[in-house]
Amino acid sequence: xxxxxxxxxxxxxxxxxxxxxxxxxxxxxxxxxxxxxxxxxxxxxxxxxxxxxxxxxxxxxxxxxxxxxxxxxxxxxxxxxxxxxxxxxxxxxxxxxxxxxxxxxxxxxxxxxxxxxxxxxxxxxxxxxxxxxxxxxxxxxxxxxxxxxxxxxxxxxxxxxxxxxxxxxxxxxxxxxxxxxxxxxxxxxxxxxxxxxxxxxxxxxxxxxx
Length: 210
Ligand code: HEC
Ligand code: HEC
Known about the structure:
CATH topology of the largest domain: Cytochrome Bc1 Complex, Chain D, domain 2
Shape: globular
Helix content: 55-70%
Order of helices and strands: HHHHHHHHHHH
CATH superfamily of the largest domain: Cytochrome c-like domain
Radius of gyration: 18 Å
CATH architecture of the largest domain: Orthogonal Bundle
Bound molecules: heme C
């Protein structure tokens, strides 16, 4: 029995060590990938013309199933494009476009879209959804990673003002552990959510004005 406990403790420790090492390795890789230069907005604007059909000229998509990428953190956009390019986040549509991009393209596109202004979708949300949504995001620590106003930071995306159907779909995928996820933290975070909370959560997040 005692031996079993030791084994469990060792196993848990080595697992978290592996996870930490994996996160550190990915972060180091992203650090090498992401240029900190502020140049690239103009290059990004030119390169973004191929993206405009779906994401809008300024990153505000009109289709509710396509995410708006205006005002997403730069590091998140680079990470997402990198994940699609490497096939670690599955999307038949996005992989086709990401495959053609160099690391310099990733940076220029991210520089352009991250500096565009978001026009959040207009909608009326009832007070009960607002208070319940707030409660869920605080209870589940969403605000700890995505920031208090849910505008995202570094490699963590903005949720505020994103299209509701897109958010709902992503939350269902994370909960089912089917959304390719850069370091596994978001898949873990979604496990505490109840299925019936997901739609309300998506409504709440999309109604927030960043
Ligand atoms: C034919 C339509 C289409 C085109 C063109 C397109 N995208 Fe996308 N994009 C999508 C869809 C649909 C998704 C959501 C995919 C998913 O479910 O992961 C997406 C997702 C993304 C995401 C992830 C956003 C998030 O919040 O997770 C980024 C970043 C992105 N696209 C950037 C680009 C860039 C940059 C280009 C141009 C090089 C581009 N896309 C071209 C349709 C498109
Ligand atoms: C430990 C940090 C952490 C916590 C806690 C967390 N998230 Fe995330 N979340 C992330 C990261 C990192 C990503 C980006 C994953 C990726 O694309 O690789 C993400 C992505 C997302 C996305 C996808 C958005 C998009 O544009 O593609 C949604 C939706 C989301 N989180 C909602 C939530 C909600 C709701 C909660 C609270 C229940 C939450 N998150 C808690 C770190 C976190």
